[in-house]
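Justification of resources, computational component.

The compute hours requested in this renewal are based largely on the per-chain cost of generating structure records like the one below. Each record pairs the submitted sequence with a full structure-token output. That output is archived, and it is also reused by downstream analysis tasks.
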Amino acid sequence: MLSPLGSVVKPLLDLGFKFVLNFHLLLVIVFSIFYFVPGAYVDDEHIVEQAAQNLPEKKYFFFSLKDSLVDFYTLDFGVTYHNHNLKVTDLIWNKALFSFHYLGIAVAVLFVVSIVFSFLIVRSRRRRRLLAFLRILNQIPQLVMIPVVIYVFSYLFSIVPLKFDPYNVGCVVFVIATLLIKPLGQLIQLTVEKWHKEASEVYVQYARSKGLSRNRVFIVHMFKNIANSFLGYFLTIVLQLLTGNFILESLYSIPGFGLGFMDSVSQRDLPMVIGYLFLFSVLYLTLHFAVQVIFLYINPRLRENI
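The structure output for this chain reads:
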């Protein structure tokens, strides 16, 4: 019989072990591509060969295992093909930090606003109309929505500058709002539908029959039961938000990792592409790990299944 502390620590250690194992598996896959198939993703491989002529000779993984392991654990992808004075890791990290400044705010706003708005919509008498509007809005793909929003606010009405300005507060707010239109609509719709479905459960009817107020039933009893579904939706929507970030940064000239990745692909810069793919994979693993930890806190029954 585990102690209360052990029942919490053991599942966390198990999750941590799985995270470390997946992280190493990801490293093996990325460095295998980097070492063994350089240039294989382009048709005209001579471009890669010409760009790499002045680079130091690449070490073979098995014949210089010590040096390779150092590169492996320091995430050393070498220098870029098109600028031999820039290390891949440093360049990607600087661009990622720039993107994380507004993406962090966007994720926090997405989490709080989706919960508040979904609760207000469920309590509203116009719930059906609002849900119908959200369903229509969510039918528009981000590939269409983001360019239209930029065109209307930047080109048509000149409310924001034509190009991203990091020192313009209105410009930063515009970027965050544009990123959140589609993800926020999807998350609110999914949460409201789950909340509405949960309202028909027997325990809700029983709680109402005991004289509990509707708000108390919603917040105290129902919220814990829909939290698992909400966090699952949230993880999926955050990944969609990162996808939308590629489109927004490319169209609005935001010097973050989305634009950097697109430039690396267009320039056939293999070390940069591999580094960005590793960054995106680590982001996914980290988000998945964080959501699993929150799952354990909200639903103790899941600790027995890990």
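Residues 39-47 have pLDDT under 50 and may be disordered. The chain has one domain: 87-305.
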